[in-house]
User: What shape does this take?
Amino acid sequence: MQKLKLVMIGNGMAGVRTLEELLALTPSRYDITVFGEEPHPNYNRILLSPVLAGEQTVQDIILNPLEWYAEQGITLHLGKKVVKIDRKKRVVYAADGTEAEYDRLLMATGSKPFILPVPGKDLPGVISYRDIHDTEQMLAAARQYRHAVVIGGGLLGLEAANGLMLQGMSVTVVHLGEWLLERQLDKVAGQLLQQSLEQRGLRFALQAQTAALLAGESGRVSAVQLKDGTELAADLVVMAVGIRPNTELAESCGLYCNRGIVVNDTLQTFDPRIYAVGECVNHRGIAYGLVAPLYEQARVCANHLAGWGYGRYVGSVLSTKLKVTGIDLFSAGDFMGGDGHEEITLSDPVGGVYKKLVLKGDKLVGACLYGDTADGAWYFRLLKDEQPIGEIRDHLMWGENNLGDTGHAGENKAAAMADEAEVCGCNGVRKITIVKAIREKGLTTLDEVKKHTKASGSCGSCAGLCEQILMNVLGSSFDATPKTKTVCGCTDRNHQEVRDAIREHHLVSIPQTMQFLEWRTPNGCATCRPALNYYLIATWPGEARDDPQSRFINERAHANIQKDGTYSVVPRMWGGVTNASELRRIADVTDKYRIPLVKVTGGQRIDLLGVKKEDLVNVWRDLDMPSGHAYGKSLRTVKTCVGSEFCRFGTQDSTQMGIDLEHDLFGMWSPHKVKLAVSGCPRNCAESGIKDVGVIGVDSGWELYVGGNGGIKTEVAQFFAKVASHAEVLEYSGAFLQLYREEAFYLERTVHYLHRVGLEHAKQRVVADADNRKALYARLKYALSFEQDPWAERIQGEQKHEFEALPA
Amino acid sequence: MSHWKKVCLLTEIPPLGARVIQHPQGDIAVFRNADDEVFALEDRCPHKGGPLSQGIVYGKTVACPLHGWQIGLECGTAAAPDEGCARRYAVRLDGNAVLLNTEAAA
Ligand code: SRM
Ligand SMILES: Cc1cc2nc3c(=O)[nH]c(=O)nc-3n(C[C@H](O)[C@H](O)[C@H](O)COP(=O)(O)OP(=O)(O)OC[C@H]3O[C@@H](n4cnc5c(N)ncnc54)[C@H](O)[C@@H]3O)c2cc1C
Ligand code: SF4
Ligand code: FES
Assistant: This one.
């Protein structure tokens, strides 16, 4: 097939990202030609600030070296500005006469710095701050001259001023507004920022308007004259008063522009053959000036150029951070507040800390942090996901760590961490490794950091820390993860969409679901298949067939794989109670199969470790005990204490209650593992406070707690309901777990599910609505009626091939 | 003399699954994908020796059960950014029979 011709104008961050996304989807659909006005390959523009500050070199910030273009077969025209587009003939022309035909055109021309229309604006020594050329000019001026004036106290202006100061210049910032960064900070935070920049040596003229730039004897700029007559000495003037979408070329060929090239949700301009992305674009009335939204645009645009045709760009929520080493500020959303909003503020001007959170209803809508931004990423997540925060409101100001131990207590400031410090304890990844990868490979999302460095790839407890590091290196929140994450790279659908489709369209098999939802890969991957398998069997019990090949080995072999390829066997001990006969059989099995280790688990039962796979079925047969499902996203243990039968304090028979709950829920598959505990009195010896469902006996009945977790990040369970009878404990617990089974995303523990939907939601459906509770419980019982003891089934010969090796 | 040996029938390997061949040189994993193609690799992940036969198979890839490295079934190499390679063995179908040749490199 003849390849289509794709021409891209503008070799910058948004455009090249679009090409990368496109090549990942379809490497060979297009012959690609790229025109770039700058003489450099694609570089990380946002890192010009560290280059100016002397912390990095131009070489460090190249994202795609020339070899990359060659490897991808891209025809690259550097230093060539496109000056004309003939939309009828479908040809573009560069200033030097180079031409290229296109079937699809991608415009990514970025923006232009706005130049104040004041006398003297064209004098030598007056520049803007946009590209490598500008940066080099600034560095050269700093070597030769002394006085610099930066006009504009926004992010760009302050980064320029800081850089020039570090290069040895004496710098004054002229700013029209009442305080610095008025688009990112409120007045209090803006003033704190000003103080600390002043301490570093910058000078400010606020509420000051530039009247003219004056020339010296040499003809070079020598001073800035303000409206009030003040003159500020200046051998270099940097204008950083804003940017304008670069639409000159688009307008000249008749494309509709209005403060940006106007595009729809698929990033198409009014000429359907022409796409546009980046700062040059106006999408739903907004022209973005930060990288994260541009990268989202790039992904959607690539999806359409590739012919997949289903991505939509619907706009972005932004957060910002100033990239001045040693200054921590963060803001996101609607941080000014006002009518109909509530504010929580913490202000410690002496300690240099100021935090303001803006709430509307039970949602966080804005945040402005100065001095301590450790929780910026967390607030940003709460804000983007529109999570209900009613229940954590009291703790909100104290940050995520305050909600529990993240496993990195006391080390919550990524910025303060030493380069050599370990960030990811599971994979031994140091901070410097992550920082390097972000810079050298141009990573912008947590997922990419995970892929390239392994950090946060295992237990995930350092994900927040990695996010902070990303934010510190890149300046703004790059966690461009859309509001709802896709299941995996095989699809653009998120978990909710998949669950809904399976239910609404009565999908009962994995291939059917993949086809219906237009999966990109023929048979998915190790991430999506287990999720789909769970959603299917949980939604259509008795109808959807379990697919062993889509289960992780533990659930396929019904035992837990060990590092050396052997397995562990944990038989069920109902409520943690055993007897002499079971113990005797365990002892005999241990001898007969030469099992290297017998261990009492943290879940009140016994683990036989180091069993060979071929022995599993015989071990199960000889044990003659049911599976403990210690390997599954399923019901694990129900821990109990001795309770009223023996204990002098016991108010209820917690042991029997636990045994009954465990029988009631036996065989239950769930989004993640589920653990219960029953204690006989509030002394709580079974640790009911950190279980998915915790039950505590009291004199008048039972208290139920939900959403506890004793694992990676300890979470205390929340009070759910108080009931009087044994039967109600079963019904309420079962109904809650069924709600979780029906609504949670795969690999979401109860606590995370509740964080997402809110405890109130679960209470409404289970505690307040008796009919719904009974219906939920009935659906659970129906689903469980299809489950049998998997070990017994395998002793009968089920899945035989799984346990037998073949001779050579 | 031919070194091709019949090790099992195609139908004895589940689609998107694997079987382990116990060989004096060490276990060999024989995989079958959704298109009924067969592949054979040494049953040791280049990362920390995980048994690849126990992983989830998709496309022409297996995800190692221990830490999720993605190993190409055709080439035995780990997908970037991981680096490493599991030894390949020659394997082919003769009708329904799966033939393995441990003398020839694949
Ligand atoms: C055997 C046992 C340790 C022991 O010797 O005591 C154990 C062993 C493993 N745990 Fe655990 N956990 C064991 C009790 C616990 C407990 C304590 C408890 O259940 O009361 C916890 C904290 C409670 C909780 O889950 O809320 C616990 C929190 C975890 C976590 C973190 C879960 C979380 O959501 O934060 C993981 C990782 C995961 O599930 O993703 C994990 C994962 C694992 C795995 C399965 C890792 C794996 O995937 O291979 C370990 C298997 C080791 C092996 O080679 O067989 N294990 N694990 C315990 C089995 C209990 C049982 O009888 O079933
Ligand atoms: C100093 C500095 C610091 C920044 N810091 C941050 C930050 O911390 N966080 C953040 O999110 N964002 C930051 N930004 C903004 C960010 O860099 C931009 O949002 C991003 O680069 C825009 O990408 P783009 O592809 O739309 O435009 P660009 O990257 O500007 O690319 C456009 C390219 O098109 C070329 N071009 C234009 N017209 C033509 C033509 N007719 N023919 C050929 N080529 C043409 C231009 O030369 C340019 O190379 C910063 C910007 C600067 C300058
Ligand atoms: S048993 Fe649990 S805590 Fe111990 S090493 Fe394994 S996963 Fe970690
Ligand atoms: S042993 Fe295979 S991924 Fe670690």
